[in-house]
Amino acid sequence: MRLFEEIVSRLGLDEEVASGEKYVVFPGRCAYFEGVKGIRSFSSSAVEVLMKSGAYRAEGEGLKVARYGGGDLMLLGNVLKVEAIV
Fold first, then answer.
1. CA 18, 21, 26: angle at the middle one, nearest 5?
2. For 21-41, what is each residue's pLDDT tens digit?
3. Side-chain-side CA neighbours of residue 64 (13 Å)
4. Are 52 and 80 in contact (CB under 8 A)?
5. Strand partners for 84
6. SS3 for 17?
7. Per DSSP, what are the bridge partners of residue 72?
């Protein structure tokens, strides 16, 4: 089960509330993205993630890819912020 499906299930939310592209950040630990089409750029301090409707930039320290495939991306490291980019 994907992370967001599990969260929606445990919280008893309507699936429509949780549709589309998603990400969650656990500051200082990791970030998880669902609906990823690709990675535009990668370094230990910044990662640009391509999604269906745009792109996001994750910034932090010691970033590394823990899992990437099937539209999912998990970054480990000191994730400080994630923001949409043009």
1. 80
2. 688 888 888 888 988 999 999
3. 3
4. no
5. 56
6. helix
7. 34, 69
Token pair in block for residue 59: 């910034």
Structure pTM? 0.76
**DSSP strand E in 10-71: where?**
22-26, 30-34, 36-42, 46-51, 54-69
φ and ψ at residue 22, rounded to 5 degrees: -145, 155
Residues in the chain: 86
What would the pLDDT profile of 39-57 be if each residue is shown by its tens digit? 999 999 999 999 988 899 9
Three-state SS at 65: strand
Whether 19 has a pLDDT exceeding 90, the answer reads: no
Task: Say if residue 14 is exposed, middle or buried (CB neighbours under 10 Å; 0-12, 13-18, 19+).
Answer: exposed
